Amino acid sequence: MTEQENNNSFDWVYYILGMFFGILTAVITTGSFGAAILGGIVGFIFGAIFLNGIVKGREY
């Protein structure tokens, strides 16, 4: 990866959005703190799957 590609990498957005909406979904459905943590972890994993499986290799 070149220096220019490192400066324009927005991969972290997918991880943060997955974690945020995982937490939000868990809190809305269960209302417990433990489920929010688990939802954040699951959302982070789904964000990683989305990034590496669906949008891998796309140009910004």
Keywords:
mainly alpha, 60 residues, elongated
What is the strand and helix layout of this fold?
Layout: H1 3-7, H2 11-29, H3 33-54
Structure in words:
- By secondary structure, the chain is mainly α.
- It has three helices and no strands.
- Helix 2 (11-29) runs antiparallel to helix 3 (33-54).
- It is elongated and about 40 Å long.
Quick synopsis:
The chain is an all-alpha fold and 60 residues long. The chain is 77% helix and 0% strand.
Task: Work out the helix count.
Answer: 3
The secondary-structure class comes to mainly alpha
Q: What level of helicity do the residues show? A: over 70%
Compute the number of strand runs: 0
Which segments are poorly predicted (pLDDT under 50) over 5 or more consecutive residues? none
The general outline is elongated
Strand content: under 5%
Alpha-carbon distance between the two ends = 15 Å
The biggest beta sheet, please? none
Average residue-wise pLDDT: 82
**Rg from Cα:** 14 Å
Q: Write the H/E string, N to C.
A: HHH
